[in-house]
Amino acid sequence: MAPHLRLAPFRPHEGPPELHGAARVGVRPGTELIHTLAATGERPLAFRVSGLPAGLSVDPETGIVRGTAPAAPGTHPVHVAVGNRLGATSATVELVVGDALALTPPLGWNSWNVYGETVSAGVVARIADGMVASGMRDAGYAYLNLDDFWHAPARAADGRPLAHPERFPDGIAALAEEVHARGLKLGIYSDAGHLTCGGCYGGYGHEAIDAETYASWGVDLLKYDYCHAPVSREAAVARYRTMADALAGCGRSIVFNVCEWGLRRPWEWAPELGAAYWRTTPDIFDSFSYTFWGVRGIARRNQALAEYAGPGRWNDPDMLVVGNRGRGRVASNLPVGRPLHLPFSVHLRGLDDRQSHTHLSLWAMMAAPLLASSDPTELSDVDRDILLNPEVLAIDQDPLGQQGRVVTRRRGVWVMRKPLASGGAAISFSNVSPFRARRRLSLASLGLAGRPDVRDAWARESLGPLDHLEVDLARHESRVFVVAPPAGG
Ligand code: GLA
Predict the structure, then answer these.
(1) Is the pLDDT of residue 132 over 80?
(2) Of the residues 118, 147, 373, which should be mutated to test ligand 1's pocket, given the most ligand atoms within 8 Å of the CB?
(3) What spacing in Å lies between the alpha carbon of 281 and ligand 1's midpoint?
(4) DSSP state letter for 212
(5) DSSP label at 329?
(6) Residue 2 lies in a domain
(7) Does 340 have pLDDT greater than 50?
(8) Residue 434 Cα, ligand 1 centroid: separation in angstroms?
(9) Higher pLDDT pick, 4 / 126
(10) Which of 65, 156, 237, 336 is buried most, with the most CB atoms less than 10 Å from its CB?
């Protein structure tokens, strides 16, 4: 355990098996499904699965489910058992065939904050391997998302999108295959203007051919940015609707991410278009600051939007910068009307251990998409323990899909409460002040009656039945508790 943090060390490929990741998986009728039944524990693992609808099959060693989803909408409970030399466990995963995708917040990786305009097929292969070797995939991280700059200088003569010929010499379809073979899904990036924020060609006017091509490539997610596009909300809604409709009709399950930085209250209109998540803030930088680009400033803005989140529709306070430690690039496009593209990288000091685990605590409590934008092959032990902690990820992924709400911010300690599917709740304390802080809260004051069982999620420890929570927090430290439902309730 890191001496100054209550953080359980996590070795994803040691010990008895544990199942992680989404407990509810959405897929459109009759479309391809690629889904890894995420499990940690010593290899080899053996999966036994029952209840998979016809057309889908599982690899018994990797837990990768592939095939075509049923043509009819419906819910299929799939029973998953996994064992190794040291033990066995089981769980039920619900496969929901219908319109809604991302029934729990997407977990994955995004190229932007680490690679910017240098992203390439080589980077993707390295990251895909890194996501598997680091245990990220097995902890539930499923998407590998290309951000800006995968594009060729221009589209093909017939209007089709093309990938950059030198950085993606075999094209995106080959890349998607590589990514899928590892049980991961591939995301891509475009823009509702004629150019992307970085100045590559945008999607405006090419929505149908883009959706069709992305589907034929095997793309699983689209982040759709809003640079070089009209300011008005009406125009934005119309442009996003055109792309959403093209994706809905493309014959593949492609998660749609609206990225206009929260400037036009997308939480009010994006869910109706079928978007699974929408950015609520400007770009995050590798900073804990209380600014509009820092972890605290961004969290504060996103916390106010809890009522808009639910299964299949999430507020997105932007990527995780955990793991960058100042090595990452700073976002080089500031969405201030006209995008400002800086042709160089700026480096900040980054987050320390406590700030990193507070960043993840807040994002998990907010049921945010968790898209790591750091290099999984260079994670320190502490950063891996933070990014992969199964109990904190499970709070984010809780199938009830509620975004936690702020109970109090008294004297710089944010207390949040997130109701869970169990009938209990997750409670977090985040000391965003520069001073040490002690707090004691009765569970009754949080609406949790009796003396329920309490777990410390970061420490992965049971604290037994309690009627109050008590914390002694260093500057920028968080504690996250999972409170069981009241006995008999
Ligand atoms: C905008 C987005 C970022 C990133 C860049 C790429 O700034 O908000 O997340 O996608 O564009 O150019």
Answers:
(1) yes
(2) 147
(3) 11
(4) H
(5) P
(6) no
(7) no
(8) 31
(9) 126
(10) 65
Residue list, ligand 1 pocket, CB within 6 Å: 112, 147-148, 196-198, 225, 259, 261, 283, 331, 333, 335
Q: Answer yes or no: do 145 and 246 share one domain.
A: yes
| Distance in angstroms (rounded) separating the CA atoms of residues 90 and 18 | 8
Ligand 1 test: best mutation among 109, 110, 118, 259, most atoms within 8 Å of CB? Answer: 259
- pLDDT at position 350 is 87
Are 236 and 299 contained in the same domain? yes
Mutate to test the pocket of ligand 1, among 197, 260, 334 (most ligand atoms within 8 A of CB): 197
Task: Identify the domain boundary among 64, 97, 130.
Answer: 97
Tokens for 105, please give them.
């917040």
pTM here? 0.96
Q: Edge-to-edge strand order for the sheet containing 405-408?
A: 405-408, 413-419, 425-431, 478-483, 453-456, 461-465
According to the model, what pLDDT value does residue 336 have? 38
Query: What is the rounded average pLDDT for all residues in the chain?
Result: 94
DSSP secondary structure code for residue 151 in this structure: B
Residue 74, in any domain of the structure: yes
pLDDT tens digits for 385-409? Answer: 999 999 999 999 999 999 999 999 9
Q: Identify the CA nearest to 77 among candidates 57, 55, 89, 93.
A: 93
> Ligand 1, atom 9: nearest CA belongs to which residue?
283
SS (H, E, C) 259-286: CCCCCCCHHHCHHHHCCCEEECCCCCCC
Distance CA 451, CA 474 (A): 27
Cα(233) to centroid of ligand 1, in Å? 19
Instruction: Give the residue from 396, 419, 442 where a domain finishes.
Output: 396
Per-residue model confidence (pLDDT) at position 339: 41
Residue 3, pLDDT score: 53
- How many domains, the chain? 3
The pair of three-digit structure tokens given for residue 42, joined into one six-digit string:
């010593």
Model confidence band, residue 333 (pLDDT cutoffs 50, 70, 90): very low
Residues belonging to the active site? 225, 283
SS3 content of the chain, % helix, strand, coil (to 5): 25, 30, 45
Sign of CA dihedral 204, 207, 209, 211: positive
Question: With the C-alpha atoms ordered 119, 121, 122, 125, is the resulting torsion angle positive or negative?
Answer: positive
